[in-house]
């Protein structure tokens, strides 16, 4: 992690430099996973000293990147009001939000996780919350009562992943979210 200084709240300028470093790390490492801390510092517009002051070593930076991205993903789920919005509305909002975060942080969210890391814990909580939203949708008769909700979650995740990897022709997140939810709930069969 970021060392002893992580326990102390960061000043606003320090938060900005950490954010700039993480955003640069996402861009640089997505293009070259072997990029050095110096390359990331240059892309972030900070000195090597600054990057090393915030992150003791490259692995600490990578772990912070994964944690930051997972936190943003968790916030995207929260912003979709999974517990209070009608299930279909929550599913759409969450999906659109997740598409935006995953599109911006694809490298960080694709990193292998240490099962004991904060990022892994956040991902497990997101999966649990996803199943809870799917259960609400099932209770609202949007999903078959016999459906295995963990399987539905896995299919949903696959649809999101394919949407991000496919050619979307500049389709916005709301339109993609509608396609994902429609495919999840109705499949590809003929419509009445």
UniProtKB/TrEMBL annotation:
Which keywords are on file for this protein? Answer: DNA-binding, Transcription, Transcription regulation
- Alphabetical list of PROSITE patterns matching this protein: HTH_TETR_2 (PS50977)
> For the HTH tetR-type domain, which residue ranges apply?
15-73
Q: Which InterPro entries match?
A: Homeodomain-like_sf, HTH-type_TetR-like_transc_reg, HTH_TetR
This protein's source sits in the domain of life called Bacteria
SUPFAM superfamilies reported in the protein's UniProt record: Homeodomain-like
**What ranges are recorded for DNA binding?**
36-55
- What name goes with this protein? TetR/AcrR family transcriptional regulator
Per the UniProt record, the source organism is: Streptomyces wedmorensis
Kindly list the organism's lineage. Bacteria, Bacillati, Actinomycetota, Actinomycetes, Kitasatosporales
């Amino acid at each position: 992690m970021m060392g002893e200084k992580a326990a102390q709240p960061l000043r606003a300028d320090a938060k900005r430099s950490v954010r700039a470093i993480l955003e640069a790390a996402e861009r640089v490492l997505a293009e070259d996973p072997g990029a050095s801390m110096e390359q990331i510092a240059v892309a972030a517009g900070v000195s090597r000293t600054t990057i090393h002051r915030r992150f003791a070593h490259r692995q600490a930076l990578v772990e912070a990147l994964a944690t930051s991205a997972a936190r943003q993903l968790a916030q995207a789920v929260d912003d979709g009001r999974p517990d209070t919005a009608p299930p279909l509305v929550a599913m759409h909002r969450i999906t659109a939000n997740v598409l935006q975060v995953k599109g911006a942080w694809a490298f960080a969210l694709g990193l292998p996780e240490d099962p004991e890391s904060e990022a892994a814990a956040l991902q497990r909580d997101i999966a649990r919350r996803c199943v809870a939203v799917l259960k609400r949708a099932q209770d609202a008769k949007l999903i078959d009562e016999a459906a295995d909700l963990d399987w539905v979650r896995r299919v949903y995740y696959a649809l999101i992943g394919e949407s991000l990897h496919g050619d979307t022709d500049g389709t916005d997140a709301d339109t993609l979210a509608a396609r994902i939810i429609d495919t999840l709930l109705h499949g590809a069969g003929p419509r009445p």
